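Sorry to interrupt, but I need a hand with the structure work. Could you write out one complete protein record for me, on any chain you like? Could you add the entry underneath, on a fresh line?
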Amino acid sequence: MKSVVILSGGLDSTTLLYDVVANGDETYALSFNYGQRHSCELKCAVTSCQKLSVPHVIVDLGQVGKELLQGSALTSDIDVPEGSYEAESMKLTVVPNRNMIMLSLATGYAVSIKADGVFYGAHAGDHAIYPDCRKEFVKAMQKVTKLCDWHQVELFAPYLDMDKGDIVMRGVMDLGVPYEDTWTCYKGLTRACGKCGSCTERLEAFEKAGIKDPIAYDQ
């Protein structure tokens, strides 16, 4: 199978990249600069693709983010909230319609190179906070993806029923993912802050998996 993986450079999408490559697919990676507050994840995405010899395209949507995707702590001058993903304040990290935009462009890329599938790393831990990671959204996008062109492309979200701890266990036990090559923190400092919702979820995931997180934290 010929596949396109949406790769942020974070833990989930990097595990997914290794998963698709391990499956034997002819794999292509697609990343996006959408005006997010830092490029740490994108640098990790480049590293992973180089290690796996996967063709990698980074799409510059910076101007789109600055003009159209405002109101999020990831794209605007808003303090990144700290604490659990369960907190209402975490909704400040939602980027308007981000996944639909990325899935649309990834599908266009897949059609252009005659790929069979597009993969993205939505998982169960995202459902409560990110509307574009819900099962209802994924199912709707799967239908649209099949209908958008005469060349049919399937949309896959294989981690939809897994939480981040499950993903870490799969990455370590089955795929040998080097998690030091991933970035999760929303703040983009020299080291991960260990306090934002994304860091908190990552630390809880490694704790659940019984594995030490290989990256350094500020605390």
About this structure: The first strand starts at residue 2 and ends at 6. The longest helix spans residues 98-112. Residues 36 and 74 are 5 Å apart (CA to CA). The beta strands are 2-6, 26-33, 56-60, 117-119, 154-156.
